[in-house]
Amino acid sequence: MSGLSTGILRGAALETRTRWHLWAVLVLIFVSVWNALGNLTPGVGFWPNAVHAVVLSGVLSSCGMAGLAALTGGREQQRGLSYLAGMSSVPAWWLPGAQLLAMVAWASLAYGFVAVAVVVRVLFEAPAGDIGISGWLAGWCAVVAWTVLGYSVGRLWPSRFTAPLAAVVPFAVYVVHYDLVGHTGYLLFPFLDEIVTPYALPQDGLYAGQAVWLAGVAVAGAGVCLARLLSRRATIGVAAVSLGLAITGVAVLSPLHGRFHQPALSAAESARLSTVCTTSHDLAICVHPAFESALPEVRNTFTDTAARLAHTPARVTRLVQQERNSTPAPGTAPLYLDDLRPGRVEEAREELISSLTDFKACNLTQDNPRTAALTELVQQWLAHGRADASAVAGLPEPTTELRTAQQTINGWSSGQGGTWLGDHWDAFRTCTLSGEDFR
Predict the structure, then answer these.
(1) Where do transmembrane segments lie in this chain (predicted)?
(2) What's the pLDDT at 7?
(3) What is the DSSP string of 186-248?
(4) What's the pTM value of the predicted model, to 2 decimals?
(5) What is the pLDDT of residue 19?
(6) pLDDT at residue 439, as a whole number
(7) 258 - beta bridge partners?
């Protein structure tokens, strides 16, 4: 038995040395790594997001490996060499077993390269969060399962059309299964184009259930491929194992009700995740550990704005990163940072300043460009300490009224501007400022 095991391993090793396999897998690795790195949240080191990026890139690996495996599975039949297997003293399942093992090795190598590339990239961002095991395993099981299924189809249907069709099927399933959102079927494959952030994590048990289910699919695919070549007892054993794994995986996924994410966090729950803090003058700033590298930029960007709001009803003493659409605590301003691409912190400041105005009231005055422009000048001052009438959107040329307001605003000290804004807060909040307010 040991001699047979050694022989099948040698056969698999010979199969992996095929040059066209090597070039195909190298191309697949390049494309998958490019896709995985593109799925990472810019500038943020967060392990759950990294895991999801690797898993999601598996759809490309699955397509490529399914097509490659189908081509390998039907190679002997297409070349008319099947009769050679009967001239050998080794068991009939030896050749397909060696080929299948080689394809699984190639799939594992491709997936492993993607995982290593992402890990190395994320390590430069001082990552936070739980790296986990089940997510990596679920992605690997998915790529292996599609590889095994591709080989089985190629062996059972040796046609020149088999490989292209096998390569398309994983992507077709990836697209079509979005119609199953809310049902267990949506979660059967881990290639889900969802967003993973510190405030939107996959449900507990999701990846584990997917890994077990997909392991059952892989075993079933191998069993179908080798069914005619195995003994009845071995076939029944393979069927029992695959069925047991598949049922167990589905049983784990069923209570999740077809939802990828954990229940939404409340404002207090999301704020408690922001445990990395710093203080700048009278402003305390707290962010999630995954965004710790942004603290200096956040401090430099928001400190002056908070000082300009000190004498208004919107006075800010704490700036806390939290989930969107959650109501902050009194005296606390929400910091909405989804990523750390260049300019994102400034966008968060603009978002905070825009939230100071009453959306419904300002909508009633949106047809009056004069009042909207005056409000925008004050918003410019809150952000940058200066106003520029020529930068107001929708006005080809600043009016005399706007130039006067600009001159007044640019003459303020921080204390004068804060006092003025406190006195005119209601008009600013409702977008009803007039030129008289700046004289």
Answers:
(1) 20-38, 50-71, 92-119, 131-153, 165-186, 206-227, 234-256
(2) 46
(3) GGSSS------BTTBPBPTTHHHHHHHHHHHHHHHHHHHHHTTTS-HHHHHHHHHHHHHHHHH
(4) 0.84
(5) 65
(6) 75
(7) none
